TrEMBL record:
GO BP term, example: iron-sulfur cluster assembly
Lineage of producing organism: Bacteria, Bacillati, Bacillota, Bacilli, Bacillales
Coiled coil regions in record: none
Name under which the protein is recorded: Iron-sulfur cluster assembly protein
UniProt source species: Ureibacillus acetophenoni
InterPro entries: ATAP, ATAP_core_dom, FeS_cluster_insertion_CS, HesB-like_dom_sf
A single GO molecular function term of this UniProt record: iron ion binding
Amino acid sequence: MTSEKKVVNLTEAAAFRIKEMQEHNEEQGSYLRVLVHGGGCSGLSYGMNFDQNLDEEKDYTDEQHGIKILVSREDAPIITGTKIDYKQSLMGGGFTIDNPNAIASCGCGTSFRTAKVTGTPEVCE
């Protein structure tokens, strides 16, 4: 089922890097699954992977800049409005995630919690 509003927003830079990764991993045509799982320093962590399987009853779908996106209906309220970008610098590059629902996050940039969902923090070393 297609969502009426975007759960996540991919920048063109992020989409370009994802396409490169799809080609490198022979995953052309796969969905980009954006997900949330428990753990990390703040209780929840972001994840992204390639997925061939769409469950129309459990997933929101979207397509942006030629990238097909999946987000589970369970994760959608936690990350609705999230912007995913890719930044390149002299020290390397990486994805950045800006979630307007996060009330706390860890310095690593992948761990967070929201006002309604805190998850279970892990011990950071």
